[in-house]
Design goal:
It is found in: Cell membrane; Membrane. The chain is mainly α and 310 residues long. The protein is built from 11 helices and 3 strands; from the N terminus they run E-H-H-H-E-H-H-H-E-H-H-H-H-H.
């Protein structure tokens, strides 16, 4: 019979316990989070207000930026506040909510990246049928499926977390609640649960990464038959997508596809895919995309003109 769960709260150790370093963490990650909000919200507003960015690619980019914003928001504010206070406790229910939200938006980002790869495959390999295959209704349905799939995945994580008995200790050596740190605190054998975690989160990360990279191999192979200008434009877009895929999937695969062992670098790697990638994505997509930069310039010009009229 499993021990009863008598833990009502957990203590998050964060990235460091040193007071000076905690202040440095506060400043750095506050700037990271503000940069993430500014960059992604700028892309969201630009895509929503620009008629030139009405293609399916930007439809998915809109949802990628929205997902990045939500993923970062589910983790960063708590981490930033904990860097300033002594009492870094989190209630059991808040911890479970954070497990759900981080996995929900993390898996949603995976599905959106898959949809973006599908969009590029259809656009480059089947250009004559592109608008028919990737119609607005189809794109909306694909995003809806991604939302539902993410919900199913996250509910599975919650089920695994709630199945674990916690009777002490309650100190989590991490800066946010995740299933792997919780496994170390459970008062039972977690071998089966860890296998389920690897087969769930690990399989989603690995299989999705292989699918996306395989699709881009096919896309790059098909570019041989395009004109020099078409090849240049397609390469610019695809390279941006590939960079984002590697930056996000690499750390996720490292974290979720191995047995329940921890390494000293785990927390920094988790910082990279939960906070670093959402910050870098807007920079990657704007610096390498002329259409987005032009739309942002037009939006900025309209804003200045409206301010002058006032």
């Amino acid at each position: 019979m499993l021990p009863k769960n008598n833990v009502t709260e957990f203590i998050l150790l964060g990235l460091t316990q040193d007071p000076v370093r905690k202040k440095i963490v506060f400043v750095i990650f506050l700037l990271f989070y503000l940069g993430t909000l500014l960059g992604n919200l700028l892309i969201i507003v630009t895509i929503k207000t620009s008629q030139a960015l009405g293609s399916p690619m930007y439809f998915f980019l809109f949802y990628l930026s929205l997902t990045d914003t939500c993923l970062s928001t589910s983790i960063a504010p708590r981490m930033i506040v904990d860097a300033l206070v002594k009492n870094t406790t989190i209630s059991f229910s808040e911890c479970i909510i954070q497990v759900f939200s981080s996995h929900y938006f993390g898996s949603l980002e995976i599905f959106i990246l898959i949809l973006m790869a599908i969009d590029r495959y259809v656009a480059i390999c089947k250009p004559l049928h592109y608008m028919t295959i990737m119609s607005r209704r189809v794109c909306g349905a694909l995003v809806a499926v991604a939302w539902v799939g993410s919900c199913v995945h996250s509910l599975a994580q919650i089920f695994l977390a709630l199945s674990l008995p916690f009777c002490g200790p309650n100190v989590i050596d991490h800066f946010f609640c995740d299933l792997q740190p919780l496994l170390k605190l459970a008062c039972t054998d977690t071998y089966v649960v860890n296998l389920l975690l690897v087969s769930n989160s690990g399989a989603i990360c690995t299989v999705s990464f292989v699918m996306v990279m395989f699709s881009y191999v096919i896309i790059l192979h098909s570019l041989r038959n395009h004109s020099a200008e078409g090849r240049r434009k397609a390469l610019s877009t695809c390279i941006s997508h590939i960079i984002v895929v590697i930056l996000f999937f690499g750390p996720c695969i490292f974290i979720y596809t191995r047995p329940a062992t921890t390494f000293s670098m785990d927390k920094m790697i988790a910082v990279f895919y939960t906070l670093g990638t959402p910050l870098l994505n807007p920079l990657i997509y704007t610096l390498r995309n002329a259409e987005v930069k032009n739309a942002m310039r037009k939006l900025w010009s309209k804003t200045l003109i409206s301010d002058d009229k006032r």
